[in-house]
Design a protein that fits this description.
The complex is a heterodimer of chains A (462) and B (377). Chain A has 462 residues and is an alpha/beta fold. Helices cover 57% and strands 7% of the residues of chain A. In chain A, helix 9 runs parallel beside helix 10 and helix 13 runs antiparallel to helix 14. Helix content of chain B is 50%, strand content 12%. The chains are: A alpha/beta (462), B alpha/beta (377).
Chain lengths: 462, 377
């Protein structure tokens, strides 16, 4: 696939504009999305390639009007974020790249700096069809970079090589969550030649570690002030952290609602919130999205019979979910299995102490330590295992799925421990050997075949 | 008998009589991974630090019950040895977050609980900023407290200073020996130097100092095992411990004259020094010495080190060594290849499995590379 410069970001902007307009129509939008389901639900083909991914993002025609209303606010935030990136390309303000686990507040607290997260391409490259990811990966392969680096990082690298990402004025890298991120950050810095600062994160969630991490965040802001000759707006930071704290309170409750039997069934919505927070933490639109999703959850808890019809069995996805194609809605529609908890969408965040800038910065640092993927990947395995044990205890699953994502070396090294945990709880476990971004490793059809076989073998489907 | 024969013998076995003697004398033997673990701290707690290796490993069959095929063969082999009871001479292991594979080795070790005493995971920051120095110091305080409690020896400043002095001495001697390799006819081969590094990190440091002094004595006495080599090679990479592999690299008239590997310059670059607070000094030295690709903010430093070493040791080419699935080296090799090309220095990137069987293929690649180099000059 040949990509024109910035084609992916432009597609995202176009998609987000369209999404906002369609979702503005309220219940009529819901009816429209239902109507196009036959064309967009089953598999990608030449005619639906560009539209299908956006369609999956809004629940594959299975979201309710309430969920769609919530997503409209994510669309607005997405649109503003990417539009600003293109404006920065055109010279309006400097662009700062942030490694995805870097709290976006480090750059968004400036009045006139555009933040960007290159790894966002993991979630958006499909806006031109699943070949979007492949095009980025092939660009990296052509450059001679080995393919043992996680595809998530290679997609962002490839996007830069293919001129999908504007040049940065500065880079803030981060030591989380894995070797792939660490090596890819160095590659990005090297290839772009931009001045960079590296944030070293915490390896545990203990106070002294989080304090040390937050000192890195202060140093990163000072680095940007020096490099970009701009002043950080601490009042803006304060406002954003208040929004974040309020959003977190709602996300916590949505996660808890998913634990009910039947579940509120909002794991995919929480996944969306995960992605939106990376680029837009502190944005009031995301708070609004969480408020509406929270209402949807409450409604579902008040009307459990509506849910019981679809919740035949409960699933935990104990690894990154497949990104090149959305599977949760397919599982729900085909088998009545509901993903009640997952690796990135399970959103439990501690409250933030608002008494001073220092405590707020510690709150932001802690928030990112509790974010999916970082939460489990940042230190010893007990972070992963305790999280899985907690999910099993709270979400009452009937089975566990692990994607065995190819590039994720630390997760691949935990297979035995995860298997032993599941065995101890008497839970069937499916370990796939897919790559969450690269359909060339395992196609959508093969992923579906393995899921089907697993559900049939374990009596969840016939 | 030449000390180099003794060093080779010590390098080829996982445990040795010097270690056994120290253990009989009541000194615990503590394994550690990675050149970022300050051996001085272990020593100050009364232990003999033992650099972990996969020497003598017979395969990965048991290790593979924990690790996937996408994990590095070094950790799979060490795990295998642990599960077979081959490392039961250890009284504890200090693991480190050197890479994700090593970090998970700690987790799998705890899960499998082989008979190797305690397991401790040291977190070393990935950058050298002021905040990171403070973070490392905090981690060292935690490690010192843990060791003091486990081994019953308080790590006082005085004990730590004495250990630092001993290890600085070992580093100085190693540097002196390494410097002699600048000569047109170096007194040690790369394989011999690696054997020496394996040996001196597997015996009490007091013995190590003695062994290196003897090696220096022989080297200064005009030793030149292969005379003047046809090609002088600089080697960089991560885990590299196979003597047989370096022998392969040193075929066809090539000789390794310097390196930036874990069991090489990364171990002996830069002293800790006797000034000031010893924990501050340790943090400064370990974050300040020639870095490895896990350190995210020092690509330029590493490249500058390589270019300077190539010049100082008159190397004709660089070999970039990587173990399969070592993502950190994947990124590093891309950058190094470009920087070396810019500087007009020929480079060859090799990927292998630890003690893997791909000898024929490696031989062919090396031979082709050396022939090309030979034709240039
Ligand atoms: S999926 Fe794993 S390897 Fe990839 S970025 Fe996330 S933690 Fe790193
Ligand atoms: S070779 Fe690389 S992946 Fe393997 S243990 Fe060493 S640093 Fe880790």
């Amino acid at each position: 696939m040949e990509l024109k410069p910035y084609e992916i970001i432009e597609s995202v902007i176009a998609g987000a504009k369209l999404g906002t307009q369609v979702l503005d129509k309220g219940p009529a939008a819901w009816a429209m999305l239902k109507a196009v389901q036959p064309f967009l639900f089953h598999g990608e083909h030449r005619l639906n390639r560009a539209a299908r991914f956006g369609y999956q993002k809004v629940g594959s025609g299975r979201w309710t009007p309430g969920e769609l209303a919530a997503y409209r606010h994510d669309c607005i935030a997405t649109l503003a974020f990417f539009q600003r990136v293109l404006d920065a390309r055109d010279g309006r303000e400097p662009l700062v790249w942030l490694g995805w686990p870097v709290p976006v507040e480090v750059a968004s607290g400036f009045d006139d700096v555009a933040p960007f997260v290159p790894e966002a391409f993991m979630a958006i490259a499909n806006m031109v069809g699943t070949d979007g990811h492949v095009a980025c990966l092939e660009a990296v392969e052509r450059e001679g970079i080995a393919d043992d680096i996680c595809a998530m990082d290679r997609v962002s690298l490839g996007a830069y090589l293919l001129k999908q990402i504007p040049d940065p004025a500065a880079i803030i890298s981060v030591a989380h969550p894995c070797d792939a991120g660490r090596t890819a950050s160095q590659l990005m810095e090297y290839i772009s030649g931009a001045p960079a600062y590296t944030i070293n994160t915490a390896y545990t969630k203990e106070d002294d570690d989080v304090m040390a991490y937050s000192k890195n965040l202060f140093e990163a802001i000072a680095f940007l002030e020096d490099t970009l000759h701009r002043k950080y707006n601490w009042e803006k930071f304060r406002r954003g952290v208040r929004v974040l704290d309020e959003q977190n309170r709602l996300l916590d409750e949505i996660t808890i609602m998913n634990q009910a039997i039947p579940s509120a069934g909002l794991a995919l919505n929480l996944q969306t919130a995960w992605g939106s927070k990376i680029t837009g933490s502190g944005n009031p639109e995301l708070l609004e999205s969480a408020r509406i999703t929270h209402k949807v959850g409450q409604f579902r808890l008040r009307h459990p019979r509506l849910r019981r019809r679809v919740e035949k069995f409960r699933i935990i996805v104990a690894d990154m979910p497949i990104v090149f194609s959305e599977m949760y809605m397919w599982i729900e529609r085909t088998f009545g299995g509901v993903v009640v908890g997952d690796y990135i969408g399970d959103a439990i965040f501690p409250p933030i102490d608002m008494t001073s800038l220092e405590t707020m910065m510690m709150g932001v640092a802690r928030d990112r330590l509790y974010m999916g993927m970082i939460k489990q990947a940042h230190g010893a395995a007990r972070e992963t295992v305790d999280d899985l044990e907690r999910q099993i205890a709270h979400f009452s699953p009937d089975c566990v799925i692990q994607n065995g994502h190819q590039g994720c070396k630390h997760n691949r090294a935990l297979g035995r421990i995860v298997r032993d945990v599941c065995r101890r709880h008497g839970l069937p476990l499916l370990v796939m050997e897919a790559d969450i971004f690269d359909k060339r490793v395992m196609s959508e059809a093969e992923v579906k075949r393995q899921l089907t076989a697993f559900f049939v073998e374990n009596g969840f489907a016939s | 008998m030449s000390v180099f024969s003794e060093l080779r013998r010590l390098a080829e076995v996982p445990r040795n009589e010097r270690l056994a003697a120290a253990a009989r004398a009541g000194r615990p033997v503590i394994g550690h991974f990675c050149s970022y673990v300050p051996e001085e701290l272990l020593h100050a707690a009364g232990a003999v630090p033992y650099r972990m290796r996969a020497v003598g490993s017979c395969g990965t069959a048991l290790g593979d019950t924990y690790f996937s095929s996408a994990n590095c063969s070094f950790v799979r082999r060490v795990m295998d040895q642990g599960l077979r009871g081959e490392l039961d001479f250890l009284d504890g292991i200090v693991f480190m977050n050197g890479c994700d594979h090593n970090r998970r080795l700690y987790d799998n070790w705890r899960h499998a609980a082989p008979d190797t005493g305690f397991s401790y995971l040291l977190f070393v920051p990935h950058a050298g900023s002021p905040a990171c120095l403070a973070q490392l110091r905090l981690e060292l305080v935690k490690l010192a407290g843990f060791l003091g409690e486990r081994l019953g020896v308080e790590v006082t400043d005085d004990r730590l200073r004495a250990s630092i002095e001993l290890y600085d001495r070992r580093r100085r001697l190693l540097r002196e020996l390494a410097e002699l390799r600048r000569a047109p006819a170096p007194p040690v081969t790369g394989t011999e130097f690696l054997a020496l590094m394996l040996a001196v990190t597997a015996v009490p440091p007091e013995d190590a100092v003695d062994l290196i002094e003897r090696a220096l004595g022989e080297a200064r006495a005009g030793r030149a095992p292969v005379g003047t080599p046809r090609l002088r090679i600089f080697v960089t990479g991560s885990c590299l411990e196979e003597l047989s592999h370096l022998e392969l690299v040193e075929s066809h008239g090539a000789l390794v004259v310097a390196d930036a590997i874990c069991l090489g310059a990364r171990t002996f670059d830069r002293d800790v020094g006797a000034d000031g607070d010893p924990l501050d000094a340790l943090a400064r030295r370990y974050l300040g010495r020639v870095s490895c690709p896990r350190m995210m903010d020092d690509v330029k430093g590493r490249m500058a080190y390589t270019l300077e070493a190539v010049r100082a040791y008159a190397a004709d080419a660089v070999i970039l060594e990587k173990l399969e699935f070592c993502s950190m080296m994947s990124g590093e090799n891309y950058i190094a290849t470009h920087e070396l090309a810019k500087a007009g220095i020929p480079a060859l990137a090799l990927t292998r499995e630890l003690y893997g069987g791909e000898v024929g293929q490696l031989k062919t690649r090396l031979q082709a590379f050396y022939e090309k180099l030979g034709n240039r000059s």
